[in-house]
Structure formats: structure tokens, C-alpha cells
Amino acid sequence: MKNLNAPLQFQFQLANLFSVILFFGFGLCFGIILTFHLKNVSFNLQFTQLSIATDTNADDIVALPPPPPPMKVGLENYIHPTEVLHDLSDEELIWRASMVPKVKDYPFDRNPKVAFMFLTRGPVLLSPLWNMFFKGHDGLFTIYVHTSGFSFNWTEPQDSVFHGRRIPSKNVEWGKVSMVEAERRLLANALLDFSNQRFVLLSESCIPLFNFSIIYSYLINSNYTYVESYDLAGPVGKGRYNKKMHPTVKINEWRKGSQWFEMNRELAIEVISDNMYFPVFQEYCNGSCYADEHYLPTFVMLKSGKMNSNRTLTFVDWTKGGPHPSRYTRYDVTWEFLRKLRNDRSCEYNRRSNETCHL
After folding, report:
1. Is 49 a domain residue?
2. Over the stretch 273-312, which tens digit does the pLDDT of each residue have?
3. Any idea of the CA torsion for 302, 173, 185, 145, to the nearest 10 degrees?
4. How many domains in the chain?
5. Cβ burial, residue 257 (10 Å; 0-12/13-18/19+)
């Protein structure tokens, strides 16, 4: 017996299958559309955030000052250093100052200058006098001041020629080899300026006996250096020689002289570059040896005797005896006294007789 309801059941099942397929297709399409929409929203959000960040960074960049132009290190900074303060050690300073150009022709206009080097215990007490002396002669001189002890923080007024001219200094003890170390430190700093041709050592109590033009011409045109050096027997001469210095320094080479010197650039370079004689003095010239009275006189005799005048340009009076030269007060310094210092004796200047011996 046939089932009359079979066609109806088949039609009902087919309708259900079609509904499921239609529902699945609708869900699939909805999911694809939703996914694409969410991706688009995420992309727009990221793009917006990036735009905001970019705008913010752009604002920040605009607010910052423009970067400084690159610093140019030209020849002027190398040959004429304007600042004397630096952080070089003595070894680094001497190495730098001992450099000598092989090319003798200078690639710049060079006015030879005199380096006035003051080795002081404190401020330059007579700076007003020196200010008058140097006035109007810019470009023909440079000043270097080495102070000691408590005066490391010493400063001069801005209108003084000594303002900003104190070199990096160390403590100095009278009669010790530290005196010579300070001299070499002054020379090395002055040698950094390639226009410095003559080098004069002074103290806070020195005064010029002539005007700047006379002293400048005397030094620049001189063919000789002025380091006092003589052979002296007795306890304050050869009696200070230490036998341990032999054979580097022999007893017959031992010399004595005033600490105050004047020299040219060639000799100054030799002095700071000396690693043969100076270490011997550092080690063995102590106590009553007084290295400042023997190192340079001995060294110059050994290295540059023919080009040295064997006299000092600084007047010093030792006639009263004792460990220090005569000291003059305001009552001693009269016109007559200054005239006497100017013309107290005759001497040689460039192999000719000359009445001006002290400056």
C-alpha cells in the first residue's frame, strides 16, 4: 500500500535544507562585510593616530631652536690660541708645545711678539705700571702668569692686561726644583702661540726700565739669548754639585746664574724638550742645591753656549749678601736710582759695545 504523504515529506525536507543553506550564506556574507568594515575602521583609527603624532612631532620640531652650525677649526685658532686655561697635563702640554713646523715660510702674516711670563707668589702687585707700559702695543706682546698656593683663584679686573692670563699653575716652593718646573710650564704655554719669538721671565716685583718700544726692539733684534751663566768655585758654586749627576752632568760643566732669563723660540723649545739633563736635576738637585740658579745656566752652556750672552737683562743686586737680592722700598726708587740702573755699566749687544745692559 503506497504512502501518500511521502511527496509532502520530501518537499518539506527540501525546504528546510534550502533555508539552512540560505541562512548559512547570509551569515557568511554578513561576516565578510563586518570583517572588512572593522579592518577599515582600525586602519582609519591608526591613520588618524599617526597623523596626530606626526602633527605633534612637527610642532615639537618647530618649537626647538635650529641646530648650531658646525664649528670650524681654522688656522687662527691653532697659531694664536686666545685662551690660556686648559686641562692638559704637564706632559701633554710639553709634547704639544714642542712641535716644530718643518716648513719655514709661515702661511700667515706674522708679527713677532714678546712673551712676558710672570712667575708670582700672588697677584702682580705693580700691574697698574705694567698696564701703562703695554698700552697701545696690542699685537706685539702676550702675557702669561703662573701663580702659587693661595693665589690660584686670583683674578684681575677686565680692563687689566693681566685679566684672563693666568695659566694652569701648581704650587711652587722657593729653592726647590718646582721653580724650574714652573718656568718650563710658562715657556710651554707661551710656545703654543706661534708668533711669540722672545720669552722673558719676570716676577711680581719687576718693573720695566724703558718704554715698550725700546725693550721690544732690543729683544726682537737681538741675535743672542740672555741667560746668566758662569763658573763659580766655593760652597755656593761648585760646592752645590751632586756627584750622582755624573756622567750626565760633569763637575766642570756645572754653572751658576740668575734665575731671570730671556731667550728666543729655538732655545725655549730646547728647554721644554730636555729629557736628558732636567730629570737629573729633578732627582739630585735638592736641599741647598737651588735648581733655579743652576739648571738653565748649565743647560744653556751645554746646548747653546755660543749663542748666549752669559748675562741677564734683569738688574739684581747681590752685594749685601744673603740668600736673597737687595729689596727696594718706595724711598729707594728715585729718578737718580733709575738712571743709574739704565746706565750702570757697558756691555755687548750683537757683538758691539752698548750702554744699555738691563731692561
Report:
1. no
2. 999 999 999 999 988 899 999 999 999 999 988 999 999 9
3. -120
4. 1
5. buried
